[in-house]
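Entry 14. Ran structure prediction on the chain below.
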Amino acid sequence: MTKKEIILEAGARLFAKRSFNSVGIRDIAAEAGVNSAMISYYFGGKVGLLREIFLRFDRLLSYESGLALEQATSQNDLIRRFVSSVLDSARMNRDVYLVGLKELNHDSEDLHDLREDFHSKAEAVFVANIDRLGINIPDDPAFRTLGFTATLGMIFSDYLLGGGSCLDDDTVLEAYKQTVITILQSGMPKYWA
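Output, structure tokens:
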């Protein structure tokens, strides 16, 4: 692992445990085992590090959701694939996902452009594949964004509220996935109809 990668992981770990504002450059440097100047060298400072973590979250979630959407053959298949792949990715990248999810709901001006870009890309992929699957949803951008946000909230409810404790145990994770899938498969058709 490169020093840049070590710093990124240390920053994600600390930002996930505490808040962005309560973590200092020295904390990150100590966690990464590097000189504090390395953070400025690689990321331009703490905000740059946060932006890089958010971009990684965006890439991971976009990849997993895009893959699920492209491979889905029906609405129920889409839900099953999306929930499974995203939670598996979150398990492998726990801290990055937790920081990204926190920042999606935070009004920090430092990430405003990245949040806007995330939402517009997610909506474009969502709309293209919803149309391909023949799912009828109202042609209202607010409705589409709300549907996507509600789906993410359902998938990550344990992750956001309980720190992702369900991700630690294979049996619990599978039960959690199935619960979320069942709720979404039962509720989304009514929501979209």
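The chain has a mean pLDDT of 85. Will compare against last week's run tomorrow.
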